[in-house]
Amino acid sequence: MSEVNIARKKEKCENCTKQCNKKQSDDAVISLQDRGATNGEVSGHVLAQPVLLSACLTCEGCVSDEESQKISQQNLQEINRVLALNKKCDTSKHKVLVASVCPQSLPFFAVKFHLDIPEAAQKLCGFLKSVGVKYVFDTTLAASFSILESQREFVQRYRRKHHDTHAMPMFTSSCPGWIRYAEHVLGSLVTPHICTARSPQHIMGSLVKDYFSKQQKLTPHQLYHIVVAPCFDKKLEAVKDEFFTSLLDSRDVDCVLTSGEILHLMKQSNVSLQDADSVPLDPVIGEIGDADLTRHDGRGSEGFLEHIYKYAAKELFGLDVQEIVYKTLRNRDFQEVVLERDGETLLQFAAVYGFRNIQTLVHRMRKGRVPYQLVEVLSCPGGCVSGRGQAEGEGGRPDRALVQQMEEAYSSLPVRLPEANPQVQRLYQDWLEGQDSPRAQQTLHTQYSNHTQTSPHTLIPDIQW
Question: Which of 47, 49, 59, 202 maximizes the CB count within 10 A of its CB?
């Protein structure tokens, strides 16, 4: 987020524990206090006025000074500073710039420049290399690890649900906005239920700074890792303590740039993506990568729900599910899928996108009325393709026409199961010493903290399945 935007947001909202005076549309004004999401407290302060969910995570009220300082370094100026130092200093002190591009960012460039996604990916790679980036990767590989680990964890949780009250429901863990909200507002109500599989960005950081650096005979300090992402929350995720690997003494992701910021860099460089050279993306494992880009299931995100659903149906009940039928509940961003056999409900999953729907979910959870074993939670309405770093139009509202075009472009990519990716299986052996090894557990999983000060009189109800 630019310094101008941060200053504007802070001017409008001094602190998230105080009244927010921003004008909101009717469907955006959902009070945490009225819905009971915070029990009258946020970060230990009693709420004098309602907190608007639409302001949560955008006013910087819950961001510490240290985090704010780190986030301020995640911008184009910092990239230009690193590039300028490379030109001045001795080659032995050069930083090797590595960019990892989220697949949900590619539709933005495809639509903006009237290209198909494979063309946009190659031209984006060409542009980034023209400004000084050495390697450009696609983060789909890292997302495959996150999905596979989430699948396995769900089955393990399901099998112990009768003696572990925190086993079900399991919430997905790939969205940093949702994780921030869970850790700093909801606390112990939901953090034990969050899947421990690291996010794709987190895994990609480890893959670059650990495995790839060793393949190139470089230290992690010699690499400067940039992630191109569709939303600003990825910046906040990158500065978390969990992203600093003490063993390597290095941060996994040095800078996150949104798709919109990359577009601004193109304008600064007087380059249109259409005029950039077409350069294939680099393979992480040092061999020729796949000729075609692929995606995971899901209408605009990584499709954790669909992959886990099909895997669990097969693993737990011996059912081979080919297609998933969504039932829309409150709106397009609150849907459920049900697995049935002989009239019996075996699994019931939900996809909950956007803070309005998240608030409904939390309200039901506090009353013990959540029938789902798994909930795919994303803070952006519409999913990752609708991230505010690329889908925001005039007045701060989503550009719905652009979002629809990006969703259509994203859906055009062929789907490949993460289990079918030979690079993933090879990395499990060469990088992680096996799928069930302690190294795999340490590298691919994390834990979530409770940063709230929940009232001791607050009772969390048992959830009935």
Answer: 202
**Residue type (1 letter), 97:** L
- HSE, side-chain direction, 13 A CA sphere, residue 48: 6
pTM of the entire structure? Answer: 0.83
Rounded Cα–Cα distance for residues 64 and 267 (Å): 32
CA distance 351 to 334: 6
Distance CA 168, CA 162 (A): 9
Instruction: Give φ, ψ of 135 to 5 degrees.
Output: -130, 145
Residues 318, 6: Cα–Cα separation, whole Å? 51
SS3 95: coil
Q: What is the mean pLDDT of residues 268-276?
A: 89
What's the one-letter identity of residue 415? Answer: V
Has residue 233 got a pLDDT over 70? Answer: yes
Cβ 417 vs Cβ 321: under 8 Å: no
Given a cut of 50, whether residue 27 has pLDDT beyond it is no
Place of tokens 């056999």: 341
Among 357, 310, 361, 306, which Cα is nearest to 333's? 357
Query: What is the C-alpha to C-alpha distance for residues 34 and 425, in angstroms, rounded to an integer?
Result: 48
pLDDT attached to residue 381: 87
Q: Taking a C-beta distance cutoff of 8 angstroms, is the pair 378, 353 a contact?
A: yes
d(CA 118, CA 294): 10
Q: What are phi and psi of 139, to 5 degrees?
A: -85, 5
Helices (H) and strands (E) in the chain, counts: 17, 13
Is pLDDT at 445 greater than 90 in this prediction?
yes
Dist. CA 168–CA 165, nearest whole Å: 7
Q: Are 131 and 142 in contact (CB under 8 A)?
A: no
What is the distance between the alpha carbons of residues 241 and 191, in angstroms, rounded to a whole number? 17
C-alpha pair distances (Å), 315 with each of 41, 232, 311 = 42, 36, 6
Q: DSSP for 368-399?
A: T----SEEEEESSTT-GGG-TTTSB-GGG-B-
With contact defined as beta carbons under 8 Å apart, do 376 and 150 qualify?
no
Find the distance separating the first CA and the last CA of the chain, reported in whole Å. 41
How confident is the model at residue 38, as a pLDDT?
Answer: 29
The span from the CA of 175 to the CA of 209, in Å, is 22
Instruction: Tell me how far apart the alpha carbons of residues 90 and 35 are, in angstroms, rounded to a whole number.
Output: 58
